[in-house]
Design a protein that fits this description.
The chain is an alpha+beta fold and about 55 residues long. Helix content is about 20%, strand content about 5%. A two-stranded parallel sheet has the order 1-2.
């Protein structure tokens, strides 16, 4: 399954921050944590995750 976001090579200067990743539902929060880590390593200044609903 292909990734829906790019790693460091795909992050341009305009996307350095803040970035708002959105998750429709969260059970563990793991996907947003991984996305935030990738974005920070790529140079994003701030990552502000948003979860629309929680399951479990």
């Amino acid at each position: 399954m292909p990734s829906q976001f790019c790693g460091p090579a795909g992050l341009n200067a305009e996307a350095r921050g803040p970035v708002l990743p959105v998750d429709g539902f969260s059970e563990t929060g793991r996907p947003l944590a991984v996305a935030a880590r990738v974005l920070r390593r790529a140079g994003t200044q701030r990552v502000l995750p948003l979860v629309l609903g929680v399951r479990g």
